[in-house]
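Input sequence (138 aa), recorded before submission:
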Amino acid sequence: MAFESGIGAALLLAGRLLFGGLLVYQGLNHFMATDMMAGYAQSKGVPAARFGVVASGVVLVLGGLGIVFGVYPVVAAGMLAVFFLVVTPFMHDFWAVPEDQQQGEMTHFFKNVELLGASLIVLVIAGETWGYALNIGL
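Predicted structure, C-alpha coordinate format:
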Protein backbone atom coordinates (compact mmCIF):
# COMPACT_ATOMS: atom_id res chain seq x y z
CA MET A 1 0.00 0.00 0.00
CA ALA A 2 1.58 3.27 -1.10
CA PHE A 3 0.95 6.46 0.83
CA GLU A 4 1.36 8.81 -2.11
CA SER A 5 -1.80 10.90 -1.88
CA GLY A 6 -5.05 11.44 -0.07
CA ILE A 7 -5.92 11.19 3.59
CA GLY A 8 -3.44 8.35 4.17
CA ALA A 9 -0.55 10.50 2.96
CA ALA A 10 -1.69 13.45 5.07
CA LEU A 11 -2.07 11.32 8.20
CA LEU A 12 1.30 9.69 7.61
CA LEU A 13 2.87 13.13 7.24
CA ALA A 14 1.30 14.25 10.54
CA GLY A 15 2.57 11.11 12.26
CA ARG A 16 6.03 11.50 10.77
CA LEU A 17 6.21 15.13 11.91
CA LEU A 18 5.12 14.26 15.44
CA PHE A 19 7.18 11.10 15.85
CA GLY A 20 10.31 12.16 13.98
CA GLY A 21 10.16 15.77 15.12
CA LEU A 22 10.01 14.86 18.78
CA LEU A 23 12.89 12.41 18.33
CA VAL A 24 14.94 15.23 16.81
CA TYR A 25 14.05 17.41 19.81
CA GLN A 26 15.08 14.66 22.24
CA GLY A 27 18.33 14.20 20.35
CA LEU A 28 19.09 17.91 20.46
CA ASN A 29 18.53 17.77 24.22
CA HIS A 30 21.45 15.35 24.38
CA PHE A 31 23.65 18.16 23.03
CA MET A 32 22.17 20.92 25.18
CA ALA A 33 22.28 18.94 28.45
CA THR A 34 25.28 16.70 27.78
CA ASP A 35 26.87 17.08 31.21
CA MET A 36 23.65 16.30 33.09
CA MET A 37 22.83 13.32 30.88
CA ALA A 38 26.41 12.05 31.04
CA GLY A 39 26.21 12.12 34.84
CA TYR A 40 23.01 10.07 34.72
CA ALA A 41 24.52 7.63 32.21
CA GLN A 42 27.62 7.34 34.39
CA SER A 43 25.43 6.52 37.39
CA LYS A 44 23.98 3.65 35.32
CA GLY A 45 27.48 2.30 34.65
CA VAL A 46 27.76 3.42 31.03
CA PRO A 47 31.42 3.40 29.97
CA ALA A 48 32.43 6.60 28.16
CA ALA A 49 29.16 8.15 29.28
CA ARG A 50 29.72 11.52 27.61
CA PHE A 51 30.47 9.86 24.27
CA GLY A 52 27.39 7.67 24.72
CA VAL A 53 25.17 10.70 25.30
CA VAL A 54 26.51 12.48 22.22
CA ALA A 55 26.30 9.32 20.08
CA SER A 56 22.73 8.64 21.17
CA GLY A 57 21.87 12.25 20.38
CA VAL A 58 23.22 11.74 16.86
CA VAL A 59 21.13 8.56 16.46
CA LEU A 60 17.95 10.32 17.61
CA VAL A 61 18.50 13.39 15.41
CA LEU A 62 19.43 11.42 12.28
CA GLY A 63 16.69 8.85 12.82
CA GLY A 64 14.09 11.53 13.46
CA LEU A 65 15.11 13.56 10.41
CA GLY A 66 15.07 10.44 8.25
CA ILE A 67 11.48 9.77 9.27
CA VAL A 68 10.34 13.38 8.94
CA PHE A 69 11.78 13.82 5.45
CA GLY A 70 11.55 10.26 4.14
CA VAL A 71 15.30 9.95 3.67
CA TYR A 72 16.54 6.37 4.04
CA PRO A 73 13.50 5.61 6.20
CA VAL A 74 14.37 1.92 6.56
CA VAL A 75 17.80 2.83 7.91
CA ALA A 76 16.34 5.56 10.14
CA ALA A 77 13.61 3.35 11.62
CA GLY A 78 15.95 0.39 11.98
CA MET A 79 18.58 2.49 13.70
CA LEU A 80 15.96 3.85 16.12
CA ALA A 81 14.53 0.39 16.82
CA VAL A 82 17.99 -0.99 17.68
CA PHE A 83 18.70 2.08 19.81
CA PHE A 84 15.50 1.69 21.87
CA LEU A 85 15.92 -2.08 22.12
CA VAL A 86 19.44 -1.74 23.56
CA VAL A 87 19.12 1.43 25.63
CA THR A 88 15.73 0.93 27.27
CA PRO A 89 16.40 -2.01 29.62
CA PHE A 90 19.88 -0.74 30.44
CA MET A 91 19.09 2.91 31.22
CA HIS A 92 15.60 2.51 32.68
CA ASP A 93 15.92 -0.65 34.78
CA PHE A 94 13.07 0.21 37.16
CA TRP A 95 13.31 -3.24 38.74
CA ALA A 96 16.85 -2.55 39.99
CA VAL A 97 16.57 0.95 41.45
CA PRO A 98 15.50 2.12 44.91
CA GLU A 99 11.75 2.27 45.46
CA ASP A 100 11.63 6.08 45.37
CA GLN A 101 13.04 5.99 41.78
CA GLN A 102 11.00 3.08 40.43
CA GLN A 103 7.99 5.05 39.17
CA GLY A 104 10.10 7.53 37.21
CA GLU A 105 12.25 4.79 35.68
CA MET A 106 9.16 2.73 34.85
CA THR A 107 7.58 5.72 33.10
CA HIS A 108 10.72 6.22 31.00
CA PHE A 109 10.97 2.48 30.33
CA PHE A 110 7.42 2.27 28.98
CA LYS A 111 7.82 5.49 26.98
CA ASN A 112 10.85 3.96 25.29
CA VAL A 113 8.98 0.70 24.66
CA GLU A 114 6.26 2.76 22.96
CA LEU A 115 8.91 4.48 20.84
CA LEU A 116 10.38 1.08 19.97
CA GLY A 117 6.92 -0.04 18.84
CA ALA A 118 6.46 3.08 16.71
CA SER A 119 9.92 2.56 15.19
CA LEU A 120 8.98 -1.00 14.24
CA ILE A 121 5.73 0.20 12.64
CA VAL A 122 7.64 2.78 10.62
CA LEU A 123 10.17 0.11 9.67
CA VAL A 124 7.36 -1.99 8.18
CA ILE A 125 5.90 0.87 6.12
CA ALA A 126 9.26 2.44 5.28
CA GLY A 127 9.58 0.53 2.01
CA GLU A 128 6.48 2.23 0.61
CA THR A 129 6.45 5.53 -1.27
CA TRP A 130 5.37 8.32 1.07
CA GLY A 131 3.48 11.39 -0.02
CA TYR A 132 5.00 14.70 1.03
CA ALA A 133 8.43 13.09 1.46
CA LEU A 134 11.75 13.10 -0.34
CA ASN A 135 11.58 9.31 -0.67
CA ILE A 136 15.36 9.00 -0.88
CA GLY A 137 16.80 5.57 -0.23
CA LEU A 138 13.66 3.47 -0.58
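Checked by second reader. The helical segments are 6-32, 34-43, 49-69, 73-91, 99-125.
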